[in-house]
Amino acid sequence: MTLAQSVNDMSQIVNADKAHVWHHLFQHKALENGDPRIIVEGKGMRVWDQKGTELIDAVSGGVWTVNVGYGRESIANAVRDQLLKMNYFAGALGSVPAAQFSERLIEKMPGMSRVYYSNSGSEANEKVFKMVRQISQRQHGGKKWKILYRERDYHGTTIATLAAAGQPERAAMYGPFPDGFVQVPHCLEYRNQFPDATDYGVAAANAIEKVILQEGPDTVGLLCLEPITAGGGVIVPPAGYWERVQEICKKYDVLLHIDEVVCGVGRTGTWFGYQHYGVQPDFVTMAKGVASGYAAISCTVTTEAVFDMFKDDASDPMGYFRDISTFGGCTSGPAAALENMRIIEDEGLLDNTTRMGERLMANLAALKEKHAVVGDVRGKGLFCGAELVADRASKEPVEEKLAQAVVASCNRQGVIIGVTNRSIPGFNNTLCLSPALIATADDIDQITGAIDTALTEVFG
Ligand SMILES: Cc1ncc(COP(=O)(O)O)c(C=O)c1O
Hints:
The protein has 460 residues and is an alpha/beta fold.
């Protein structure tokens, strides 16, 4: 499909979409008196809709995914070549790109050693939950089955991952959920939950220890955290937090699972978000940026110590990991992921992410100086948020519709930004930015320039 396509063709597409497509996280009533937007083409940081309107995409495909940008011919070629040679075989057998990508990936993740392939972030996270439950049965006599997750974090859309959702608006009405999921407090210092703390990072981590002690350490098997919370408000943990979290996990023999579905593969300027903090996880999951959306792929990565627990007794027919992921056997995923990784390396995109991320944060800080409605700006690399408040002193969040109006104004100016959406009740007030890792200084300035105009338009 090209932009040269006739208006007639596009109206058919629009009608077909309107009549038959059910869009994700979307109230379709809005389309009764309007047309859906169809994204027709993309190149670099920019996309074009059915009317030929050009938009700069500051959210990498809406959900922080297209890390290397649109229109990458070399990824398309790598996938095409692989599909013609061998498109699919179930994961019980190996494939050339799966073996190659696992080796390249593990080189970037000291201490980790095994990659289990599947095809979405939710699925990758559920694999960990299943592994932990099986470890509980086989290693701990049924103890250590509980899974801790953090308020404001999100780990996916399936029933089990929603059981681990720290975002009530995502989980509401989809229960009842499975047992054994327990919430720990969030660590966002701007929304201070530990006013007496002298060291906020340590206090927020100690709150996890408190939950472990309340539940009983022999019941807790896993702590699942995002390295930097994404959809819950772009929360960069305070200094000292991760170090203390690691100590607590070691002390109580709790496995540490870091959900890198958003931060993984470059988003924050390192290969993985946790690598900013010197922690050593037992599980790392990743999806979105692994192949930048050129193919569906997710990975559940773990250590040799965990892996060994599933091959310790070959005489036990129930002893190994009895999981299946049909589409984990698609070779397009690792083929695209290999090329995606090569691009990040050859084009120096980690370094660009750090430099452009600093520019983005500086621009957002300038917006905070100028607009009283910007209460807090947070971020690392090209992963930033600006929390909007009605009043700086009370920190009362702006009404959701006003945050949405800022997004709409940016859209009218040709810039797609995001906002926390159906996340924490009353707190869908943080603007979210995650431009592709190829962003230039001009791109960054165009994005924050549009936000500046939008804030003036909406709040005066
Ligand atoms: C941190 C995090 N984990 C997991 C997921 C779920 O990924 P998927 O939508 O690919 O299932 C998401 C999706 O936004 C996410 O942000």
